[in-house]
């Protein structure tokens, strides 16, 4: 595809500079209890994430959770930390660099995190200060949820509220059923499964969970996940006939009922009922992170093997691979159409 550039008949807006801000969830600055505590305090204080009235939640958050969870989570982060830092941050940065190459110099690509660093307000201000007065904000969540996509929009609103001179914004819609996304997943998963040194009986699609109550209140997240799963399974039935595709939800937090079936329970029941070889993919995560690398690949494996499973592969997410980057380029170019840099 050609670089994004001003068409000859629109020279009057050719000086407007266009930026793209990729946004993901966020991650601690270090795999230490203190850094994880700072991160969790910000994350779990977001009313979009924990929808319990503050008067009831604050004592629980500060009394129990922030006293006990940081050490446990820091251990999990320690097991997956890399020389480039947290996998989620390192991969998001790589996606931004890759997209910059694909889009060329006509557009500036940067990245930010909803929680922790680099923050959305700091990167938005930096873009404006550098003269980028049109910014496409792209939350890297294929499936919409109040806890993720809407929370990014809230933070953007807060940031704009403090800016005297704001850039013009566009936002990337959720892309859970977009042919570019489903096609990228199909290609990536089919290639990775074919390259395994065993033939899986089951492909488990594990999405991040949400409280069941959010579905009842009208959050589309569950429906978006189910539609992604259905479309991907239809494609894979052609590419990998004979492979059973199942869907589950991981990372339950707290005591409330979460979306089911739970990934851990699914791994256990599959192994107990005779499945020996399994591949897991996490299509809702645009980048590998503690949830895929530790919860699935370390703890999930332990659960599956303890119940009798013998082979388990967790496939890398789309990350900054060719399929994922081609998808991002397609999605972003579509939103930039008309915003010539
Ligand atoms: C109330 C709890 C949580 C809700 C609701 C929730 C929704 C949600 N999260 C993601 C994506 C990610 N979550 C990640 C980590 C993570 N999530 C929670 C809790 C809730 N998430 C916690 C406490 C943590 C931190 C790790 C831990 O202590 O267990 C991550 C990975 C971050 C990283 O640093 O690697 C991602 C990505 C989605 C998509 C989602 C709702 C749809
Ligand atoms: Fe989460
Ligand atoms: Fe987790």
Oligomeric status of the shown chains? single chain
Tally of individual helices: 11
Structural class: alpha/beta
For the largest beta-sheet, the strand count, sense and barrel status come to: 4 strands, parallel
At the first level of CATH, the class of the domain at 179-314 is Alpha Beta
Low-pLDDT stretches: 10-14
Termini distance? 16 Å
Lateral strand order in the biggest sheet: 2-1-3-4
Q: Choose one word for the global shape.
A: globular
Mean pLDDT: 95
What is the percent of helical residues? 40-55%
CATH architecture of the domain at 179-314: 3-Layer(aba) Sandwich
Strand content: 15-25%
CATH topological fold name of the domain at 179-314: Rossmann fold
Pathway: Porphyrin-containing compound metabolism; protoheme biosynthesis; protoheme from protoporphyrin-IX: step 1/1
Pfam family, one: Ferrochelatase
Protein name: Ferrochelatase
GO molecular function: ferrochelatase activity; metal ion binding
SSE topology sketch:
Elements: E1 17-26, H1 33-43, H2 54-80, H3 87-103, E2 107-115, H4 120-129, E3 132-139, H5 146-161, E4 168-171, H6 179-194, E5 202-208, H7 212-216, H8 221-239, E6 244-250, H9 263-272, E7 277-281, H10 290-306, E8 311-314, H11 322-336
Parallel strand pairs: 1-2, 1-3, 3-4, 5-6, 5-7, 7-8
Helix pairs in contact: 1-2, 2-10, 3-11, 4-5, 6-8, 6-11, 9-10
Bound molecules: the ligand C=CC1=C(C)c2cc3[nH]c(cc4nc(cc5[nH]c(cc1n2)c(C)c5CCC(=O)O)C(CCC(=O)O)=C4C)c(C)c3C=C and fe (ii) ion (FE2) (2 copies).
Main location: cytoplasm
Protein name: Ferrochelatase
InterPro entries: Ferrochelatase (IPR001015), Ferrochelatase_AS (IPR019772), Ferrochelatase_C (IPR033644), Ferrochelatase_N (IPR033659)
